[in-house]
Amino acid sequence: GLPADQLSVENAIIITTSNQKVYVLDPSSAAVSWLRNTLAEDNVEVVSASSPRFHTSFDLAVRFGKKLIIQDVDSVEATVYPVLRGDKGQQDGRNSLRVYHVSR
């Protein structure tokens, strides 16, 4: 889990309640483990930005509204910008994607 200090607790609240896409700086990888556990019921997928599966996972998350944790992000790829800006909008009355970027 995450440390119990006030900043970590406040960040966890922001991450779980925000409607915005969340970018997390996580040098210790504690946030990835915590997000996996917190979002386990939602079948969250974790993919590395450098993985050959990245584009497929990202595309499926956009199309089907899956939650996706993208880790090892050194720079944001151009194909991700429209989603981060919110250009995608809603599909069938629900948010089409919630993105979590995790960088070390």
Can you tell me the overall shape? Answer: globular
- Give the end-to-end Cα distance, rounded to a whole number of Å: 17 Å
Q: Judging by the overall fold, what is the CATH architecture? A: 3-Layer(aba) Sandwich
- Helix proportion range: 25-40%
Approximate strand percentage: 15-25%
Question: How would you explain this protein's 3D organization?
Answer:
This protein has 104 residues and is of the alpha/beta class. It has a single domain (6-103), classed as P-loop containing nucleotide triphosphate hydrolases (Rossmann fold, 3-Layer(aba) Sandwich). The protein contains 4 helices and 6 strands. It has helices at 6-17, 30-38, 54-64, 81-85, and strands spanning 22-25, 45-48, 67-71, 90-91, 94-95, 98-103. The strands form 2 sheets. It has a 4-stranded parallel β-sheet with strand order 1-6-3-2, sandwiched between helices. Strands 4-5 form a two-stranded antiparallel ribbon. Strand 4 and strand 5 (94-95) form a beta hairpin. The longest helix has 12 residues, at 6-17. The two termini are 17 Å apart. The mean pLDDT is 83. InterPro entries: AAA_9, DHC, P-loop_NTPase. One of its GO terms (cellular component) is dynein complex. GO terms for molecular function: dynein intermediate chain binding; dynein light intermediate chain binding. One of its GO terms (biological process) is microtubule-based movement. This is Dynein heavy chain ATP-binding dynein motor region domain-containing protein.
